[in-house]
Structure formats: structure tokens, C-alpha cells
Amino acid sequence: MDWNAGLYDQQHDFVAAYGEHLLALLPDGLGFAVDLGCGTGALTGPLTARAARVVGIDASPDMIAQARLRLPQVEFLVMDACDMPWNGSVDAIFSNAALHWIEDQERLTAAMARVLRPGGLLVCEFGARGNIGRICAAFAAAFQAALAEEGIGAAYLNSERFYFPSADEYAALLVRHGFTVRLAEEYDRPTPLKGGQDGLASWMSQFFAQDMDCVPQAAQEKIFAAVADALRASQWDGGQWIADYRRLRVVAVKH
After folding, report:
1. pLDDT value of position 2
2. What is the rounded distance in angstroms from the CA atom of residue 127 to the CA atom of residue 250?
3. What are the domain boundaries of the chain?
4. Does residue 7 carry a pLDDT above 90?
5. What is the Cα 160 distance to its own chain's centre?
6. For 128, which DSSP code?
7. 5-254 homologous superfamily
8. Could you give the count of Cα atoms lying within 13 Å of 66 in the half-sphere of its Cβ?
9. What is the C-alpha to C-alpha distance for residues 39 and 5, in angstroms, rounded to an integer?
10. Going by C-beta distance under 8 Å and a sequence separation of 6 or more, which residues neighbour residue 179?
11. Each residue of 29-77: pLDDT tens digit?
12. Handedness of CA 97, 131, 226, 159 (dihedral sign)
């Protein structure tokens, strides 16, 4: 997926703001920490206060370029998280709002277990089962209707692309790969979107960009309008759109 790092920082900075509390789950005095899915580096900077060495990794070159501008003194790498090279030497993996984008969760979890030293920590938060459920349902209906109208033979992808597990499901995955789970909890987090009336369309243009690539601009506008109509009664509070986020917060220790 191609990310617009500038739009992400301007319109979706809530992602990092909501992730700041996660840092408190990490101890001070770490040796080597990895910010997995670091995005534009908004939380990588604070992470450097807790570890002697911090490396931020992300699969998006645009995000990494923005992170390097933000924090030129920090090491950032364009990297598939499944290919992390630091076998048995990482003290902590920190990840906010990133793991649900990674398709092969077995491979990812094996990679995290491989690079963490015994006693190393995984502290992460990402989408839980039911996350953005209303938005996804409304988008899927509007998207398929637009495709039919345009005569485009594509399919809605997001329901298959996102990984939104329950706490029990994700804890079982971690245990299979040699982790002891200290915390795995789900919670609802209704999230205001910036931009007033345009906030929902801006959000969709970023997070559903992979689907929108196959749709003409005029059809995209129809999709945005149809989704807004479908969600106005439940997700519009009179001044802003509220995204129906549901999150999974995890702390686990590598054996």
C-alpha cells in the first residue's frame, strides 16, 4: 500500500497521539528497541528516552523519508517486519497501529520471537475484532455499488486485508511462538476525525487507498458520499465524524 506521509501527519496525527500511553508500558533503561511500523516517527522520538539504541522500521519509503526528516539522528530503515535481521538481540519491540496491516501473522510473530532476546518485551496496540466495523460495512456496500455502475470487475479488499483478532486469538498466536502474555485486552475507542464534514472522506482516501486505486475520481466521490449518508446517523456528532475504533493492547515476554 502507498502511504501519503504528509496527509498522515496533517490529518491522522491522532494515531500517534493515542499511542503515547503505550510507551508507559515499557521500562526505562532498555538497550535496543525496535519501533515496528514506525510510520513518520512520531513515537520513535519518545522511545529514544527509554533505550540506548532505537531503530524505526516501516515498509513504506514515504513514511521512512518523513521520519528521517523529523529525527535525523535516529536510524530508520525501509523494511518488511518479517525480515528483521537482529537475531536474539532486541530488548523490546514497540508497535502502535501497525500490526493489523501485515498479512502473514504467523511469519511476523515468528520473526518477532526470533529477534527478541530471552526476556525481551513485545508492547503493541492495533485493531481488535470489530474495529471500524461500521465504516468497513458501509464502504464495502458503496464500493461494490460503484464498481457495478462503472462496470469494473474488481472486488472489495479491506475485509481480507486487515487483521483484527480477538484478545484470545492473538494471545494464542503469541503463545505458540514462545511468548508469555502478560496483558491482552480489547477496548472501544471512538475516535474523532479531523476535517469536519470532509474528515471521513479524508480518512477513507488514506486507509482505503488500495481499493480506490482502481476507481475513477468521479466514482470515488460517489463512494465517499454514499458512505457518509449511510453513517451520518451513527457516526456524525454534528461537528465531526467519529470512527468506530476498537483496539487490542498487548504486553508479552519472549521465553
Report:
1. 56
2. 11
3. 5-254
4. no
5. 15
6. P
7. Vaccinia Virus protein VP39 (3.40.50.150)
8. 19
9. 8
10. 113, 122, 252, 253, 254, 255
11. 999 999 999 999 999 999 999 999 999 999 999 999 999 999 999 999 9
12. positive
Distance, in Å, from the CA atom of 84 to the CA atom of 76, rounded to the nearest integer, reads 13
Residue 125 main-chain phi, psi, to 5 deg: -145, 135
What is the model's pTM? 0.92
32 contacts 90 by C-beta, under 8 angstroms: yes
pLDDT > 50? residue 158: yes
| DSSP E strand boundaries for the chain | 30-36, 51-58, 75-78, 90-96, 116-127, 179-193, 241-254
CA atoms within 13 A on the CB side of 240: 11
State the chain's mean pLDDT as an integer: 92
* β-strands 116-127, 30-36 pairing: unpaired
Per-residue model confidence as pLDDT tens digits over 213-252: 888 899 999 999 999 999 999 999 999 999 999 999 999 9
Single-letter residue type at 62: D
Would you state the cell numbers that stand for residue 146, as one nine-digit string? 460503484
